[in-house]
Fold:
Amino acid sequence: MVLARTLGSLGEEVGFRGLLFHTLNRWMTWPISAVLTGLLFGFWHVRYYGLPPLELLGFVSGSVALPLTMAAVMVGSFCRRMTVCTILHTEANLALSFTGGDHVTLMTFGGSMVAAAVVIVPVALVLRRRKR
Structure:
């Protein structure tokens, strides 16, 4: 199960964060590229469309906040960035799998991803500016 989740996460990360994000980032700023990538990623998971509105909002919010956070901290080679993103994505998938992915879990996922983004993104921006 862990191997299957890891391979699935790797495929999605290469497609969404590896190719889509970097393609969009050629024409837009990285925050806008990350938000669009997150929205597309969230809507890619059509099995969640049947959720009640607040749960769907929680999932999509988390799906936008997580790539925004990842984009803020991604550094290094393509392989290094994809490794970090795949590990984070696999951890999220396993957490949802082992907790049943019920409505409380999805709301907690969304809320925790948004909270992480609120803390991590500004810190990453400050650190980027200091390196310049």
